[in-house]
Design goal:
The protein is α/β, with parallel strands linked by helices. Helix content is 48%, strand content 15%. It is built from 8 helices and 7 strands; from the N terminus they run βαβαβαβαβαβαααβ. A 7-stranded parallel beta sheet has the order 3-2-1-4-5-6-7, with helices on both faces. Helix 1 links the parallel strand 1 and strand 2. Helix 3 runs parallel beside helix 4.
């Protein structure tokens, strides 16, 4: 990936942070986007510690003007946009379907689905102009099997798979590959907050995990970076599950 440029949203912690560091380790220049300014700055420092070039952009990925500016700033800073990892997302405390409020629904859909559409839209515009690129979107195991107490999260992540497969089909033969990853329960700050809000349900899920442990952000990052790479040049429209085999049980 030497000389290539990667953009990672949600790069201030967890899977996004691990992916930004791994892109740098593979030789890519990395644009890190997050609304968490402290975490984003930390990731940029980690990228530089790997000997890479990194730049943090404070971005609200639900705001199209900011997303368009994020892509433009990445290209202005580094010259191109070769890899995009659309990874920003949130979770909420578990609740039953009929207890879900419209505000909670709207927030989840905006951050976990609409933001992916906005990022893809402007990434694709740039990649078409330059002749190609690779996009990876973070969905979830919840996109395949409903997450208990998470109706809106389940719906949003299944929507990410729909965007992924549609774009992969439309962009076939245009030099742009689009894939998705479906992480299981990963040891990230987002999952930690959910575990704190729903400890009994979370513990039951963890006990179902192969080996009784959570996955590591680095284990998911490896999959995302590989899908971006030329080693995956014949892979597009794919959904890669990275969950230690949980959905296979």
């Amino acid at each position: 990936m030497k000389g290539k440029v990667a953009l990672v949203t949600g790069g201030g912690s967890g899977i996004g942070q691990a992916a930004a560091v791994l892109f740098a380790r593979r030789g890519a220049k990395v644009a890190i986007a997050d609304r968490n300014t402290d975490g984003g700055a930390d990731t940029a420092a980690m990228v530089k510690a790997e000997g890479g070039e990194g730049r943090f952009f404070a971005v609200d990925v639900t705001d199209e003007t900011q997303v368009e500016g994020m892509v433009a700033s990445t290209v202005s800073e580094f010259g191109s946009l070769d890899f995009a990892f659309n990874n920003a997302g949130i979770t909420h405390p578990s609740r039953l379907f009929h207890e879900l409020t419209l505000d909670q629904w709207d927030e989840m859909i905006a951050i976990n689905l609409t933001s992916v559409f906005l990022c893809m839209k402007h990434e694709i515009i740039q990649m078409l102009a330059q002749g190609g690129g690779s996009i990876v979107n973070t969905a979830s195991g919840a996109a395949l099997i409903p997450a208990p107490g998470q109706p809106h999260y389940t719906a949003a992540k299944r929507g990410v798979l729909g965007l992924t497969t549609y774009a992969a089909d439309e962009l076939n033969n245009k030099g742009i590959r689009v894939n998705a990853i479906c992480p299981g329960m990963i040891d990230t700050p987002m999952v930690a907050s959910w575990r704190e809000s729903s400890p009994e349900m979370a513990e039951a899920v963890v006990q179902m995990m192969p080996g009784g442990r959570l996955g590591l952000p680095e284990e998911v990052a490896e999959a995302a970076v590989w899908l971006c790479s030329d080693e995956a040049r014949w892979v597009s429209g794919d959904t890669m599950v990275v969950d230690g085999g949980m959905l296979n049980r």
